[in-house]
Amino acid sequence: MLTASFRGNQASLACSVPIERFRAIATRRRSSSPTLSMKGGEPDSGEEEKAYVHYDHVLPSRYERWTTRESFQFMHNRPWQEVRDFYFSVINGRSSLSELFGAERSFVHDDTKIPEAYEESRVESLPEGNRSGRWERRTYKIVLSYHGGSFDGWQKQPGLNTVQGSIERSLGEFVDEKKAKLLKDKSLPVEGCALVAGRTDKGVTALGQVCSFYTWRKDVEPQHIELAVNTAAPMRLRAVSVSEVSRSFHPNFSAKWRRYLYIFPFNNGENGEPSEGTKENVDEISSKANSASRSKGFGNDIGDEDLQSLILSDKEDDFEGGNKQVSFEVSRVNRFLQHLEGKLLSYKMFARDTKASRNFGPPTECFLFHARAALARLKGTDHQEGRKVMCIELVANRFLRKMVRVLVATSIREAVAGSEEDVLMKLMDSTSRRATAPPAPPDGLCLVDVGYTDFNLKTCLIKGS
Description:
Elements lengths: L2 E2 L12 E2 L3 E8 L5 E2 L6 E2 L3 E8 L12 H9 L3 H12 L46 E9 L16 H8 L6 H9 L9 E2 L8 E11 L6 H9 L6 E9 L11 E9 L16 H13 L9 H7 L19 H9 L5 E3 L18 E14 L8 E10 L6 H15 L5 H5 L17 E7 L14
């Protein structure tokens, strides 16, 4: 079989792929019509010939699918600031997620107590006799909430304002003397070490993130840690609860499930209901989206793979060239997602930026307990009734990198195209990650909570069929 070698991001396509699944489009850039270079941010003038590769879908759909660039534009041309403001209100206790659905719902598991699997007291779990050395280590479980728009993601990185960096600096005062001396001898700052249930990207909010911290000091109490964390970044970072747990507790490996919520805001005039034959001028979409992608809060989270997949064609009539829609039904997205429930599946086509060792086999398999979408109202906006939004709730034993955001964007793209209801299942058999849409903006994503006991379907935010 003939193959075409892909010259883009090696993580997105590590090997050759069948040539009949792709179509190459060569475009020429001219000085009289400068185009935007996404990496440099400046118009690129001068003669340059480039060939870009589009994924040629073979799955049936009622309308022609968006290209990668069109999908990116549609997702970013949204009032995301209203979503960020809502999450900020939730973090500070002025709003709650249950307000989205117009009724109070009990959905968050009780994280103020030590999980059942670790309820045995620390003393009972220790060997008899003198308890010293490693048996004196005390481990604390910290439940955090933080505003994604205020940090550069979870993972600590030099020169960036990250959640992990703020947490570990605040825990420095509880480090035992032996470790503090070791850090000072190496000319390193005295900071604690926080393990986490799952790293979140820049812009992603968390309401029930779980991390742990251990120390050999005996004078540290949970309320001391809570006070230190709450003063690290007021209004942006808060310790929901702190409790002492067994030494065997690990926030990541001990977790049985994670729950994410994605809020997708509709523009004025959109309602998430079917609107036959609705189309929008591509020039208007392109100009708005290109401006949005470069504005603060939108383009900051775009990775190298996203940047390379944006500039697929310099044609200005991509939307107009085919029978492409720009409206979709939330109920259709809901039906797409329901096909994923209760199945152990490989989501490697919906992952991004993963290591080669995690691209095949069990490392890519996830089990979704719950996957639903529903219309809701975002309170606290200029609209009297609240802005219409689509909420997507996903609960799984684990998630791959950017998996939720790719699932959201792909579900919307396929709903607009009028694809069959099992399209997400069929996309899992693709040979290239370009078969799925680029990740949705991080602004709408929220890690709601992490569970260490069996998931209870009664606690779901979105219920029913």
